[in-house]
């Protein structure tokens, strides 16, 4: 009799414990569904630090150093104030960022073609040093390659007008040299912002069929495709700045911008890099 009662008590206790265990497990499961906990890290893992690229934004600099190179546009030909777009860009960046801006050097020489720029870069060691120290590199090149002072583009006979064929024939080789210039600058300073100032059509008012505009667009598009390979290199478009009221923004030589034309280019550069 005693053994029977003990057996039933044991069975009852086991059943009670089983029931309590089931209730507890059920309640725990419901709690996890309603209030899920974040998975805890079971293995100690050292935080992985990714190498941050050097901040190339001009806003992060204590000061901004500019180097310019190329042809007469970077030299400022046509701006009677002597500042050109390079000097005006300096002034506008100082105002924009509220910090000192310096022109380390302006290596631009009027009349230079892409071939001349390449030779100058190879010959002048101080140019490479300056580019390496720059935060912003400004470049103009290609206009003299295409137009060559009007050689082959204007025949001198008014009835024949503007002929872009000669410029089109010179384009492929000039673009190859332009790419070499871009590559050299990028290698000398992979962190600087490099702005290539795109071409505009200075003879638009003499080009009734506007064939030259398509030529300029083709050049600028090719330049964009090259600069797109480099993370800190951009083409600054300028063709649209001279599409309307062309003579208002050109110097008396009908090729270079005047002070107002250069200011429009400088405004565009500051807009791009800020």
Describe what this molecule looks like in 3D:
The protein is an alpha/beta fold and 274 residues long. It is built from nine helices and five strands. It has helices at 2-34, 72-75, 84-97, 114-123, 125-133, 143-147, 165-188, 211-227, 259-273, and strands at 64-70, 101-106, 136-140, 193-197, 233-236. The chain has a five-stranded parallel sheet, sandwiched between helices. β4 (193-197), α8 and β5 (233-236) form a beta-alpha-beta unit. It starts with a helix and ends with a helix. The model is unreliable at 38-53 (pLDDT under 50).
Helices and strands, with pairings:
Elements: H1 2-34, E1 64-70, H2 72-75, H3 84-97, E2 101-106, H4 114-123, H5 125-133, E3 136-140, H6 143-147, H7 165-188, E4 193-197, H8 211-227, E5 233-236, H9 259-273
Parallel strand pairs: 1-2, 1-3, 3-4, 4-5
Helix pairs in contact: 3-9, 4-7, 7-8
In short, what is this structure?
With 274 residues, the chain is α/β, with parallel strands linked by helices. The protein has helices at residues 2-34, 72-75, 84-97, 114-123, 125-133, 143-147, 165-188, 211-227, 259-273; strands at residues 64-70, 101-106, 136-140, 193-197, 233-236.
